[in-house]
Amino acid sequence: MLSCDEIRALLSKRLSKERYAHSLRVAATARELAERHGVQAEAAERAGLWHDAYKELPVPEQIARAREKGILTPEYEAHPHLLHGPLAAACLPEDFGETDAEVLQAVRLHTTGDAGMSRLDMVVYLADLLEPEHDFPGAARLRAAARVSLEGAMLAALEHTLQYLLQRGAWIDPKALRARNALLPFRIKE
Ligand SMILES: [Fe+2]
Ligand SMILES: [Fe+2]
Hints:
Layout: H1 4-14, H2 17-37, H3 41-50, H4 59-69, H5 74-78, H6 84-96, H7 101-108, H8 119-130, H9 139-148, H10 150-167, H11 174-182
The chain binds fe (ii) ion (2 copies).
């Protein structure tokens, strides 16, 4: 398997400057969160590096590749921005030799979450949302939550995203709702 340095070298050629810089920040944030919460830091860094590796492929190519891998659904065809995580998880073993099943799952779930998320999955989802250059209303509250509890922060992050999607009248992936429902016992009392 590639080392983190080799993954960085590969991504620096594959991604735009902006997306590459975002991926480095997500990987660093994921490593930090993992260390704080006793999650495997190397896996968190790898997943953070890989998470958007297929995001800049043209959508028709993403769809063709997903069809080939047997993971294309009508929902992904209608909402292709949700495809790059599952597509990366399906393609990374063959394309780049990434075979760590836990890393692949964290990459697969980084956009939507799902019921039964591992703590590594939560670290990567939260790092994508909370990397230092990503500013939005409520970010400080979510960053504080992420220092206290992964599960509690994950619940708050999902509810933040769901509210944003509802306000915009957007389609909601049932995986995100399942993730949120599964985490209801972990609400942080303020
Ligand atoms: Fe992404
Ligand atoms: Fe991202």
